[in-house]
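Progress report, Aim 2. The chain analyzed during this reporting quarter is listed below.
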Amino acid sequence: MARGNVAQAQLEYGERETVLDGRYSWARLVASLVLATVGNVGLWSVILVLPEVQAEFAVDRGDASLAYTATMIGFAVGNLLLGRAVDRFGITVCIVGAAVALGAGYALAAVSEGLWQFAVLHAGLIGLGASATFAPLIADISHWFDRQRGFAVAITASGNYLAGVVWPMALKDVLAADGWRSAYLVIAIVCVSVMIPLALALRRRPLHVSAAGAVPVPPRQAIDLSPRTLQWLLVAAGVGCCVAMSMPQVHIVAYSADLGYGVAVGAQMLSLMLLGGVASRILSGFVADLIGGVRTLLIGSVLQFLALLFYIPFDGLASLYVVSLIFGLAQGGIVPCYAIIVREYLPAREAGQRVGLVLMSTVMGMALGGWMSGAIYDLTASYQAAFLNGIAFNLVNVAIMLFVLWRTRGPTTAPAAA
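Predicted structure tokens for the chain:
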């Protein structure tokens, strides 16, 4: 490498140390949270309109639910594909493309004439577009913080849950007055008008990218595992924790109805769970900055295990509210910790694709677990065995993270190749 290039790279690396955790980083974090809250509407909109869509298209509930499954598939695949894209092209290109996809997807879905059109649009445009505001956005913000990286990642990831709190309240009057098609047109307009300007404000690239790899940003932690092995262990852990996580999240409304408390009560429990999840994500970010991502994930996974246990003996109304809140507080911080772990142990310039792959596994775990719990219920006519299935998968997650912690050798003391 030429001496001038080395000097320039060293200057940029020193500038990186000044920029990280600075005023620009915090402004970027605020923009990322807004983008995440707006873009993740893709995960919640179909739930809001499901009864109306079912009635209008004259299909049963199972067929109508295919749109949600299609959305999750598009979202999972998008986290992987756009995670790779953000490493190469930056977050602005990904978010602008996502805004166009969401705008077109919702506008076309609003005039769809059948369920299959509706479902295909949710998979191909809405789910894929929403994914840009999850793993790619989380990977991007991780480059702009060092001392408070865990907190920044957790805040950005909270947009996923905040979308589930904000959008239903924002759309309830439109849904009541004008129906789901008008609500979808409103979503299309908001996504395009909010996301594109914010994406253009994020055009600045991380400094380790502009340094062109001349001065690599080393991982914080050294571990006696190859990057590939660690990557696939995190994928397996992501599936395990989210199969467990999906049991209450996907089935709490149905579980409440089965116990005789009604659907409305179950929806309240779900909202309480999500609010607890937001608090948990923020708190876990603080904790991860102090003790690291692996230890923080282990704490959350053990607490999730205990909360799942509590669901089995405690099925009274008051008890279920309390346990649902405990579950939300336990599980909310788990998923963001995977992104933190990737940034602590694996090369910075591969963050997008690696975070995307791991978070894709968590989405697939949610989809798999939701289906497994329903299938177990059909076989046993009870959710007790489904809770036990979730507990078993949760223990797999705990075992993997204990193994990763055991193989960790401590903070790196010398730069490593990125």
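Residues 36 and 261 are 33 Å apart (CA to CA). The mean pLDDT is 84. These observations will guide the mutagenesis work planned for the next reporting period.
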